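Long-time lurker. I teach an intro course on protein structure, and each term I like to show students one example going from raw sequence to a predicted 3D structure in token notation. This year I'd like something fresh instead of my usual example. Would anyone be willing to generate the tokens for the chain below so I can use it in lecture? Attribution to the forum is fine with me.
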Amino acid sequence: MAKPDPAPRIAYFHGQPGGGAEWDALAPPGLAAFAPDRNTPISPQTLAAQVAQSCALEPLTLIGFSLGAPAALAVARDLGKRVAQVHLVSPAAPLALGDFLDDMAGGTLFRMAQSRPRLFRMAVHLQSLLAQTAPNFLLDRLFATAAGKDRALFREPAFRQAMAQVLREGLGRDPRGFIADVAAYVADGGADLAHVGAPVTIWQGTQDNWTPPAMARALAGALPGPVTLHLLPGCSHYSALRAALARL
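-- Reply from a regular --
Happy to contribute to a lecture. Here you go:
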């Protein structure tokens, strides 16, 4: 009788809008991870408990992509020494660390979440309807400003199909997680960064216009360390995730 597969030692925190299928689309074959679903709102403490229960207890590797980076850092704080390392890919750094919004493709939506939260929620519910009924149309809109290697990645049929599935099964199923993550993000002052004890590696595309390189540099400077910053030439947002996972 075959032995059961061991629990994965990697926990992956998807972007927003996003889902666990990001991992399936961009991770190398054979690299397993537990990818908790954050499309339904979940507290950092519950998220940490899920990771502790679903993964081998130690050593744990946490990987946070885009708006999954704050979630990965929160879980790293809660699990403490159980976490051996944290990898942040195209990370959304706290807005308190710099004036980033003008250089972010989603800057308008984040400003709306800050100043007009009711309108923001209405906009997300509209996007959720599109994700349910016309995910490819929404995908085209999201990638209309794709830069660097993301442009070539978006032309890959397998990637487009996987990302349409991500939208349909994530934002299209429940927009509340997206709303909660963005609301928490725009309200975050970054004070908890000082309590992250695990070594952090940041992977950042030089052509990223969703979370620009200035964000990664500011985050690297704000974390207590040790921190390693890898710049990925020509990569943008999702292409940086593919490149980083290949190197892991």
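Some talking points for your students: The chain has eleven helices and five strands. The mean pLDDT is 93.
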